[in-house]
Structure formats: structure tokens, C-alpha cells
Design goal:
Layout: H1 26-32, H2 34-57, H3 59-71, H4 91-112, E1 117-119, E2 124-126, H5 136-148, H6 151-163, E3 172-174, H7 175-193, H8 196-209, E4 223-225, E5 230-232, E6 241-242, H9 243-246, H10 250-260, H11 263-279, E7 289-291, E8 296-298, H12 309-321, H13 327-343, E9 345-347, E10 354-356, E11 358-363, E12 369-374, E13 376-378, H14 383-392, H15 411-427, E14 439-442, H16 449-454, E15 459-460, H17 480-492, H18 495-511, H19 539-552, E16 563-565, E17 571-573
Helix pairs in contact: 2-3, 4-19, 5-6, 5-7, 5-19, 7-8, 8-10, 10-11, 12-13, 14-15, 14-17, 15-17, 17-18, 17-19
């Protein structure tokens, strides 16, 4: 089979230098008069000194002071002049990513073919249940091989799916993870190849997962025994379900309905969204846990990181998946973004970095409920920068790069916040390894003295200086920042996003690459050389390397206006279903 091919990109034309300004003659300069020049020089020096001192003492205030003037400009943040936009391939960097994928895949294929997970340091695989696995890594990697044109590697992977993949496994699997990685991987492989093998396997898996939705509310339970087709509540978590997990199955199930004409998948997915829309509070910030029996939110933290992140991601993507006709999803998304800006978006007091905080529920001494703002942000939140920019341009339907006059309502606000968040996420890569930690904590004006004395001015990693680093300091090959860089580049053609992505890739190559094959996470991003963890997450090949490849590829490959990526980076086509009631 052939990989997805690129259009030949035209070379960037060289730009002429602007003509030099007319230079006054020596005689004209002499007539100007030195007293005026000295006065102007003194004023400029004085102003420069004042601004410098202001910046040193309170840079955040200075930035806030000039922001209103900046907003008067037609220049959008994160966008260079249109004549510098270039959407062709960067072949050297793109091919380096292909080599990295082959380094990862060939090691897995050698040591652990068919196993769910890979451990590159010990050269072995493992499965998610004692009864066996369901090929998480193989299926999660299929579309990356197709996109990269790795025909031989893909041929062997497809053969494994055809002859060895089975879901008749008497083991308990997470509904969310299995849907986004395995069902999503099968569906995207079909989208790219139209090979009916993948539809057969996808339907078989989905039918086993559907028992999870048999609750009074219609919200799916957390787990399923695939072999016995039995729903398994999460007893270790009071039978609750996470908001992100129940609201991040919709793209996959709706696309499967489109392919099979079986409405049961679509109806189950939409029922979940109906329950959430009815239950979501005002302002529409979703707590991270729900009760699947009652269909209601449970008092629990509000955050855009773990257990909350992809709920917001899929609000926008469900709207985009069906050609922007289901306005109910757009309304839910816009309402959520308004609430995020009002209640979660914060800035550091020193350098004015933008981040999203978390809200923690607490009981007062009088047993009243109150919410405490916590200045921490998961690496997972870094998806939001690109998502905001995608939403601001109505799914990439603006000019490339977008023009200021195309933005209406809150779109420019969302674009600016998205770009600022990407910058903050890149700032968290300013560690000794160049890798970003799992969790970043941000400085506030009211920090206790212990933090003020020891922490850097803007953000820090909790526990990174301890002999045994906290989990906050890990980097486990996560893709969220490069995902946002890919989207931002596609929307602007601005080379800064490619340069930032290349910096991240080089850090991964330097610190995570295992010489004998594969890649491993690090336990502490602020120690060089870092200690490696013996695990290569499946999203390394499914997401991180795929988004890097697409970042450096010609933009004709999988254009954003024709495809929507699920939360595991599996591309699905934009569909325009007929005969189904739109979610409005």
C-alpha cells in the first residue's frame, strides 16, 4: 500500500530588503542643531531607564499596561506577516521524526509484538490483564505508519491484526482508553485505507463496549470485561466515572455509526451529552466526577487536566466532526470557554505567564462549601492552546494566516489565550533536560515564604529537588504541547512553531532515546543525565511522533478542514450525516 503523499511545495521566494530611507546630507544635519538632539537623547535615555526599572520590579504590570495599546494593532499574536507564511514540508526534520518512529517501532516489534505495552530497558512487553492483551500498541500505531508511508512495517502490523487480534479476552479493560486507542486506531486505519478488515474488528470491539452504557442515566461505567461482555463499575472510586472519560467516546462511536449505519452507537454517545448538558452547573465548569446512576455531577475538583481535559476538547470536535451544523456543541463549548476565562485563567505576577488554575472544593468550619484556587497545571492542559486557536478560527476555516478582521465576538480573545498558553507550555520546557514536567506549579502574590525563598520567579516543579522526585517531575513522552504546535502551525504557517517543536524533539532524542531501541520517560526533568523509566507509552508512537511528523510535513496532508483528530491523534473524516437529528 502507498503512504499518504505530499504535494510538492513551492520554494519560499526571497524577499527584497526595503529601500533605505533618504539620508540627510552633512549640511542638513549641521543645521538641525545639537541642543535639540541632546534633549531628545536625554528624554529617550530617561524613558528607557524608567521602563527598564519598571520591568525589573514588576514586569507583569508593565505588560498589562501596554496590552490595551497592543490590542489596537491589527497584528495578531502568534502570527507573522502573511508573506512569510510557509506550509510546505521541512524534509530534514520530517525524516528525522520518521527515523525516530522506526527506532521505537522496530524495538517493540522485536521484543514485544502484540503486547499492550513495551518496556524498552528490560526488552519485554506486558499486557493490561492476566488473561492477555488486545494489541494496544499495534493498533494505536497503525495510522502513524500509514501516514509516514512505512509500507513494510504497516504490512506486518496489518497481518497481526488480521491473524492474531482478538477481543475474546476474559479480562477487564477501561472503556475510555480502549475506545480512544483501539477503537479509534481501527477506525482511523479504515479512514486512511478503506480496508474492510478494520471495520469488522471495530464493530466487534464496539459491541462488547456497549454494555458499559446500561446504566439508569446512560452514562457508561468505567470498565468492561470484553470476553464476558460484562460492565464493571469502578468500586475503588465509589462507582463514580470521570467526566472526561464518559465525554470522550463520541467521535469514535458517531463515526462507527456513519460507517455501519447502526444508530445504536450514535444514540449512546449523544445520550451522554444530553445528560451532561442538563447536569452542568452555572457557570458551566464541569467537576471531574459524575454519578452514572443519577446522571449528576459529584462535588469534586474542577480542572482542565486529568479527568477533565478531553471533555472540553470533544465539545469543539463534535461540532467540527459533523460539518459545524450541530450548534448545541458549539454553544456548550463557547459557554465553557467563557467560564474558563472568568474563573480559571490566571497570570504569574512576575513575567505575566498565562496558565489555567484548578478549583478545589473545601468545607469551612461552618460546613459551607467554598472553592480554593490552586495555581497548578498538568502537562495535559497544553492541548488547550491549539484547541482554542482551532475554535477561534471555526475549525481552520479562516485565512492562513488568519486576518484580524475575521475574528468576531470572543474569537480574538480565545486566539490570544491559546497562543499565550502555548508560550507558557514552552516555558515549562525550560528545564535542564528541555522536557516539560507532568505538573507545573505557578507563583502567586500570596506565596508562603518557603516558596518565595526557594522557587523561581514564575513556576516550579514540586519536589524536584528531593532525592526521590515527586511524580510531578516526570516526563512520560506526552504529546500535548506538540499537538498544539501542530495546530498553530497549520493555522498560521509561522515557522516559530516548527522551531519550538524541533527543540522538544531534540530533547526527546537526547534524553529519552534508548540506544538498543525504543524511548523511555524520565523520572525528573531537572536532573541531567536523567533516570529513565522502563516504559514507552503507546501515545509516543500514536501521538507525539505523529504530531511532530505532521508539524514538519506539507500541510496538504490531513488538512484540518477535512479531518478531526480524536484525543489519541487518530484522524477521522468530517462527516455530514443525513436523517439524524442534529444536537442543537
Amino acid at each position: 500500500m502507498e503512504g499518504i503523499r505530499e504535494r510538492k511545495a513551492r520554494p519560499v521566494s526571497e524577499h527584497e530588503q526595503p529601500p533605505e530611507d533618504n539620508v540627510p546630507s552633512q549640511h542638513a544635519r549641521a543645521q538641525t542643531g545639537w541642543p535639540v538632539s541632546r534633549l531628545l537623547y536625554t528624554l529617550v535615555l530617561l524613558l528607557s531607564t524608567v521602563l527598564y526599572l519598571f520591568w525589573k520590579t514588576n514586569p507583569g504590570a508593565l505588560i498589562r499596561l501596554i496590552e490595551p495599546w497592543y490590542d489596537l494593532s491589527e497584528q495578531l499574536p502568534g502570527v507573522s506577516s502573511p508573506e512569510y507564511a510557509f506550509l510546505g514540508a521541512d524534509e530534514v526534520r520530517r525524516d528525522a521524526v520518521v527515523d525516530a518512529f522506526k527506532h521505537a517501532w522496530l524495538a517493540y516489534e522485536r521484543d514485544a509484538m502484540g503486547d499492550d505495552e513495551y518496556h524498552p530497558l528490560s526488552h519485554k512487553g506486558s499486557n493490561l490483564t492476566d488473561a492477555g492483551g488486545i494489541g494496544y500498541t499495534v493498533v494505536d500505531s497503525l495510522d502513524t505508519m500509514i501516514i509516514m508511508g512505512l509500507d513494510e512495517e504497516y504490512r506486518r502490523a496489518r497481518s497481526w491484526v488480521d491473524t492474531k487480534l482478538t477481543f475474546e479476552v476474559d479480562g477487564i479493560f477501561n472503556v475510555f482508553e480502549t475506545t480512544i486507542r483501539v477503537l479509534g486506531g481501527l477506525l482511523s486505519a479504515y479512514h486512511l485505507t478503506h480496508d474492510s478488515l478494520y471495520i469488522d474488528r471495530a464493530k466487534n470491539l464496539a459491541d462488547r463496549l456497549m454494555v458499559a452504557f446500561s446504566t439508569p442515566s446512560g452514562l457508561p461505567v468505567a470498565m468492561v470485561n470484553l470476553g464476558t461482555r460484562t460492565p464493571i463499575p469502578d468500586t475503588g472510586n465509589q462507582n463514580l466515572v470521570s467526566t472526561a472519560e464518559v465525554a470522550t467516546l463520541q467521535l469514535e462511536l458517531r463515526y462507527l455509526t456513519e460507517l455501519t449505519d447502526d444508530d445504536s452507537y450514535w444514540k449512546a454517545a449523544e445520550k451522554v451529552m444530553q445528560v451532561i448538558r442538563k447536569a452542568v452547573p452555572v457557570p458551566p465548569l464541569a467537576a471531574i466526577y459524575m454519578d452514572p446512576q443519577q446522571g449528576t455531577f459529584v462535588t469534586s475538583p474542577i480542572r482542565l487536566g486529568s479527568r477533565g481535559d478531553s471533555y472540553y476538547e470533544y465539545l469543539l470536535k463534535q461540532y467540527l466532526q459533523t460539518g459545524r451544523v450541530e450548534t448545541g456543541y458549539r454553544e456548550m463549548y463557547d459557554g465553557a470557554m467563557d467560564a474558563i476565562h472568568e474563573h480559571l485563567v490566571q497570570r504569574t505576577p512576575h513575567t505575566n505567564f498565562l496558565y489555567t488554575a484548578e478549583l478545589m472544593p473545601e468545607r469551612t468550619q461552618t460546613h459551607q462549601m467554598q472553592w480554593r484556587l490552586v495555581p497548578k497545571q498538568d502537562h495535559l492542559v497544553c492541548f488547550l492552546g491549539g484547541s482554542l486557536m482551532l475554535g477561534a478560527t471555526d475549525g481552520g476555516h479562516f485565512s492562513v494566516p488568519p486576518r484580524a478582521e475575521e475574528f468576531v465576538g470572543t474569537a480574538r480573545r480565545d486566539w490570544t489565550t491559546g497562543y499565550e498558553l502555548i508560550k507558557t507550555c514552552m516555558e515549562t520546557h525550560r528545564t535542564h533536560t528541555g522536557l516539560s514536567p507532568e505538573i507545573a506549579h505557578f507563583r502567586t502574590k500570596n506565596d508562603p515564604q518557603a516558596i518565595a525563598d526557594l522557587a523561581p520567579n514564575d513556576w516550579y516543579i514540586k519536589g524536584s529537588r528531593q532525592p526521590t522526585a515527586a511524580l510531578d517531575a516526570r516526563y512520560i513522552l506526552r504529546p500535548e504541547t506538540v499537538e498544539s504546535l501542530f495546530i498553530a502551525f497549520r493555522l498560521t504557517g509561522d515557522s516559530r512553531y516548527r522551531d519550538w517543536g524541533w527543540q522538544i524533539f531534540q530533547s526527546i532524542e537526547k534524553h529519552c532515546k534508548v540506544p538498543t531501541g525504543g524511548y523511555a520517560g524520565v523520572t525528573n526533568v531537572d536532573i541531567v543525565p536523567p533516570e529513565l523509566e522502563d516504559k514507552m507509552e503507546t501515545f509516543m508512537m500514536s501521538e507525539t511522533l505523529k504530531y511532530l511528523y505532521l508539524l514538519f510535513s506539507d500541510s496538504s496532508i490531513l488538512p484540518l478542514t477535512e479531518n478531526v483528530f480524536n484525543t489519541e491523534a487518530h484522524p477521522f473524516p468530517i462527516i455530514r450525516p443525513t436523517g439524524r437529528t442534529a444536537f442543537t
